[in-house]
Amino acid sequence: MSQPTGLVRTGIGPIDRDHLHLWDLFQTLLEKDLREDEALAVLKELLAYTRYHFGREERLMQEIGLTGEPRQAHIHEHAIFVKRVENFLELLQNRAAPKTTGLQAMVEEIQKMHQLPTLPQLDPAKRVVAFLVDWILNHTSGMDVELANHTEAAKGPLANQDFSFLESDRPAAS
Ligand SMILES: [Fe+2]
Ligand SMILES: [Fe+2]
């Protein structure tokens, strides 16, 4: 698969492959006309894979001896993102309530916090997904690239490094 526009490569193989996989899951949610149960299954997989991926990055931080603010800030962003995906999942799961009030509120909150281009053609659920995609792009080009820079500073050129220690059992697809 070619590199999607806007998704920056870090130069760390396992991390970049994870980003592509997450990207695919997001595109499935955005572009395919999924039934609600299918969308929920994809979102659950996305949450599981996101946790796994963040775990790998945090393991890398440990491996290169990254401490202090750069480590704390990065881990903090991961935690906020996981919370958002969890909230989103929870909202979709409890949508037995009339309409999508919870989702609409989340969309409004997101739009207040971030000057996102308005996406009027998308329903509230897809707008939340669009926000999550936007987050991933920003996070990858910011903190993940910084992590790659720290890794290079600590251990030398990325191309010469063996990142196989990051390979461990992936979460089972749901
Ligand atoms: Fe990442
Ligand atoms: Fe990250």
From TrEMBL:
Cross-referenced CDD domains: Hemerythrin
Coiled coil location: none
GO molecular function: metal ion binding
Residues of the Hemerythrin-like domain: 12-143
Domain of life assignment: Bacteria
One Pfam family named in its UniProt record: Hemerythrin
Alphabetized UniProt keyword annotations: Iron, Metal-binding
Family matches, as PANTHER family: BACTERIOHEMERYTHRIN
Similarity field: Belongs to the hemerythrin family.
Protein name per Swiss-Prot or TrEMBL: Hemerythrin-like metal-binding protein
UniProt source species: Magnetococcus marinus (strain ATCC BAA-1437 / JCM 17883 / MC-1)
Lineage: Bacteria, Pseudomonadati, Pseudomonadota, Magnetococcia, Magnetococcales
